[in-house]
Amino acid sequence: MSDTAALKTMAQQAIDDAAATLVDISNRMHAEVELAFEEAKAQTWQCAALDAAGLSVERGLGSLATAFRATRRAGRAGPRIAFLCEYDGLPVYGQSCGHNVVAAAGVGAAIGLARVIDRIGGEAVALGTPGEEGGGGKNILHREGFFDGIDAMMLIYPGMDDIAHSRTVGATRVQVAYHGKAAHAAARPELGINALDALLAAFNGINALRQQLPSDVRVHGIITKGGTLPQVIPDHTSAVITVRANDAATLARVVPRIDACLVGAAEMTGARLERTWPERPGRELLSNAALAGSFERNLRALGRTTRPRDELSGAWSGDTGNVSWFVPTIQPQMAMTGRDVPPHSHEFHAASIGPAAERCILDAAKAMAMTAIDLIVDPGLLESVRKEFAERSGDRSA
């Protein structure tokens, strides 16, 4: 057995030794779902496990009380490798993105790398990043400097397939409101201006536009207020609409066309439009191919069969996308569910505990720890990761 193989075996053993704790963390997060920036219990459970494994733990980072950082630094210099943990859930749909699995895998990877870090140099970091579901916790932590000095980072997402060089898509979200004029809907409707008609016209305009949008674009939204009383012409309605695309350039071309639908609906109905587009859309993931290649080799060594990513489906958005343009990053997908179980569903929440979820946690933790070992002991791999990142990350305006 080579020295590197022996190190990986030691890291795997550390993760197996912590398996009961990791599964318990995941199960607790599943049973007691906490929403964005309210994840006090999840923070406590993860920090306790990391502290027990000998890492130095900081609870609360900058302005985020439920963030954390756990580190184990070797006595000699080397790369600083971070494993990102997400742990918030969704209202109603719970852990329907499997953040309980994401968190447990990240904690496990840090524990595995920490077991061997003194032998190879460098630093193992577990970074707790709250508020992924719409809160943008990683963006806040990045602005406050908590990604500074990290040489590479990784996290996994559970899903239908094992995809090492996975992707996420860019996204932006617009808050829309129409203001009309109230009137009695039966006696004198002609004196009103119907804000609901305006909102429905906007949605119908977007629906008609879909056929002419690029295949990778996704547009979806909800009406948050449709009026007050059926006997009153609605004078105020509101909605939230999300637009996604594979890259920032496509998103920049599509957004004005969506906005034209919003404006046109106001002009047709006489309602007044208010909308707020974010100044900077969320970026797509800059997945590092060299780093993903190492992860894929390690995942296959664990007995998993990988597949290429699909460029038109099977991807979502997240705040990892923005920070991946500043630090070499991968966010592989790990097979956990059947192909009929979509994320953000009650069925996915149910699938986020049980034997398949437990295998996903342990295999993901091991593959990430093994990949981190490759980065530290193989200067050539680290150089390839850095070179690729330098060549591809030119636009960092996220």
Assign a percent range to the helix content: 40-55%
Distance between the termini: 44 Å
Chain-averaged pLDDT: 97
Q: Give the CATH H-level superfamily of the largest domain.
A: Zn peptidases
The secondary-structure element order is HHHEEEHEHEEEHEEHEHHEEHHH
What is the CATH third-level topology name of the largest domain?
A: Aminopeptidase
Number of strands: 12
Q: What's the CATH first level of the largest domain?
A: Alpha Beta
The biggest sheet amounts to: 6 strands, mixed
Q: pLDDT below 50 for ≥5 consecutive residues: which ranges?
A: none
- Shape descriptor reads elongated
Beta-strand percentage range: 15-25%
Overall radius of gyration: 23 Å
Question: Order of strands across the widest beta sheet?
Answer: 1-2-4-3-5-11
Q: Pairing-aware structural class of the strands and helices?
A: alpha/beta
Q: How many structural domains can be distinguished in the coordinates?
A: 2
Summed up, the helix count is: 12
Q: What is the CATH architecture annotation of the largest domain?
A: 3-Layer(aba) Sandwich
Overview of the structural elements:
The chain is α/β, with parallel strands linked by helices and 398 residues long. The protein folds into 2 domains: 3-168 and 285-392, Aminopeptidase, CATH 3.40.630; 170-276, Alpha-Beta Plaits, CATH 3.30.70.360. It is 42% helix and 18% strand. It contains 12 helices and 12 strands. It has helices spanning 3-17, 19-31, 40-52, 99-120, 137-143, 195-209, 248-269, 289-301, 320-323, 346-351, 355-377, 379-392; strands at 56-61, 64-73, 80-85, 123-128, 152-154, 157-159, 170-179, 218-225, 236-245, 272-276, 329-330, 333-335. The strands form 3 sheets. Strands 1-2-4-3-5-11 form a 6-stranded mixed β-sheet. A 4-stranded antiparallel β-sheet has the order 8-9-7-10. Helix 6 (195-209) packs antiparallel against helix 7 (248-269). The longest helix has 23 residues, at 355-377. The protein is elongated. The two termini are 44 Å apart. The mean pLDDT is 97.
